[in-house]
Amino acid sequence: MKEKRKRKKSIFSRLVKSYVLFLFLSILLYVGVAVAFLAIVGNGNATNLFPDSIITGDGRIKNLEALERIGGWVEELDAEGAVKAVYGHAKVQTEKYSLEELTALLELNTAEFDRYGVTMRKYEPEQKESYAACVKTVGDPGRIFLVIYPAGTLSYKLTVELNQSGDVWILWILLALFLAEVLAMSFYLKRHIDRPLQRLTEGMDEVSRGQRDVVVDDNADREFGEICDKFNLMAQKLKESEEEKHRMEQRRNQMLLELAHDVKNPVASIKSSITALREGLVPEGKIQDYYATIDAKSERIRMLTEDMNTSLKLESDGYQLNLERKDVCEILRRICADFYEEITGTGKEFEIEIPEKPCLATVDEKLLERVIHNLLSNANKYNASGKKIEVAAREEKNQVIIEVCDDGEAIEREFVPRLFEEFSRGDETRKTDGGTGLGLAIARKIVDKHQGTLKYQRAEEMNCFIVRLPEDDGETP
Fold first, then answer.
1. Computed from CA positions of residues 320, 321, 322, 323, in that sequence, does the dihedral angle turn out positive or negative?
2. Is the pLDDT reported for residue 394 higher than 90?
3. Which of 49, 59, 284, 348 is at 20 to 30 A from 422, Cα to Cα?
4. How far apart are CA 405 and CA 392, in angstroms?
5. CA-CA distance, 112 to 117, in Å (whole number)?
């Protein structure tokens, strides 16, 4: 998707393209208007205003209609600069031009002066208008013609201007065309910018209404495409977060149901024992047994509530570990010593492989002790058919690895995915009435809090629970 987006145009390139197109169209527009104007005033042909179209090569006056329409005329001069003839309706009467003026007219074909140049302006006190003249010589020896134009209308290069009489209508045409061009370019940009924004807004509205399967896919410019991708990712993450929240709520509700179920039997047993004692229904020799039952069932309830409380606290984001740099091997030795008599007392072998070299890790010592305690306790209680329990520790690839294994019956393959869930129940060979169903779930949460992993695997006829913790980096936590 990202590669596809990279191949698309960016907004910057589209804006550059749009402004270049705008400039090109503007030039075409103004040139077109100028040519159209010249065509109109030139009687349908802009070249009708050129001197060559008015005066033929042999000195005949060919077409004065277009020139007269704009208020111009033609003067023929003799060699002395005197005006021999006037063609058209002259607005200014001139009898003779000086030698200096004629020289300038004949020699300078590109300059523009007030009076001395190819474009010559003549100012008369009684006139309010000014005129420009273009020179044309024909024949040999040459005949001199001056083509007179209103000065504000045309120059020799036929550049269109507003004349002093005020052709305001051409200004309005130009303004209207310019506004039309601006609107066209605006709609063009709006189409490529407003549409993806509108689609994004619609997608946000759908998400705000509770819809989660929202995908915004617009064939827009690269930047908008990236925004769409980010929006889709956000919507997907929101959907996954809500689904996870829903699963956690269901799991928590299930935990509470399981807890209520597990508490109900001990409470019923305690209540019935107390009733029997209170009503004197218990023989004298059995009274201590009833008290022992009440104590055992009360301890069962205490363990359930304590484990549930621990499990819920570990799920909280605000729960803080008391991290310290510790030797994991030393913690293992201490716990194994506590379990040694309990395990060997059941007739099982207890094999311990802990290196003398320290295995340092940053851990919460009490919580790590609980993980190892739960694993060893389960291995001893649930290993009804096996004869051996093993504990090992080692360092490997910047990790401290702890293994607790037993040679009991394999855990059912169907049950393995739910092994670390709260109140999970395995096959009958690995069950006992002494557990709460929360031990492995709590152990997994503690290891997760340490940024480690806790996994189960069946290897070499052994049930192995493997804890991997990040090795200490040597810095004080």
1. negative
2. yes
3. 348
4. 9
5. 5
Structure tokens belonging to residue 89: 């309706």
Distance CA 143, CA 470 (A): 107
Query: Looking up tokens 């996954």, which residue turns up?
Result: 240
Contact 218, 225 (CB under 8 A): yes
The Cα 25–Cα 289 span in angstroms is: 104
pLDDT score of 424 more than 80: no
**Which of 152-161, 265-274, 435-444 shows the lowest mean pLDDT across its residues?**
152-161
Higher pLDDT pick, 126 / 364: 364
Residue 442 and residue 422 in contact, taking contact as beta carbons nearer than 8 Å: no
Q: Are the C-beta atoms of residues 395 and 403 closer than 8 Å to each other?
A: no
pLDDT of residue 20: 65
Give the pLDDT band of residue 34 (cuts 50, 70, 90): low
| Residue predicted with more confidence, 43 or 242 | 242
Task: Decide which of 9 and 26 is more confident.
Answer: 26
Q: Give the chain's mean pLDDT.
A: 75
Alpha carbon distance 86, 101 (integer Å): 18
d(C-alpha 235, C-alpha 208), whole Å: 11
Q: How far apart are CA 205 and CA 194, in angstroms?
A: 16
- Residue 363 CB-half CA count within 13 A: 28
CA distances from 267 to 33, 38, 45, 297 (A): 100, 109, 112, 7
Q: How many Cα atoms are found within 13 Å in the side-chain-facing hemisphere of 110?
A: 0
- Confidence category of residue 158, pLDDT binned at 50, 70, 90: very low
Encode the chain in three state secondary structure: CHHHHHCCCCHHHHHHHHHHHHHHHHHHHHHHHHHHHHHHHCCCCHHHHCHHHHECCCCCECCCHHHHHCCCEEEEECCCCEEEEEECCCCCCCCECCHHHHHHHHHCCCCEECCCCCEECCCCCCCCCCEEEEEEEECCCCEEEEEEEECCCCCCCCCCCCCCCCCHHHHHHHHHHHHHHHHHHHHHHHHHHHHHHHHHHHHHHHHHCCCCCCCCCCCCCHHHHHHHHHHHHHHHHHHHHHHHHHHHHHHHHHHHHHHHHHHHHHHHHHHHHHHHHHCCCCCHHHHHHHHHHHHHHHHHHHHHHHHHHHHHHHHCCCCCCCCEEEEHHHHHHHHHHHHHHHHHCCCCEEEEECCCCCCEEEECHHHHHHHHHHHHHHHHHHCCCCCEEEEEEEECCCEEEEEEEECCCCCCCCCHHHCCCCCCCCCHHHCCCCCCCCHHHHHHHHHHHCCCEEEEEEECCEEEEEEEEEECCCCCC
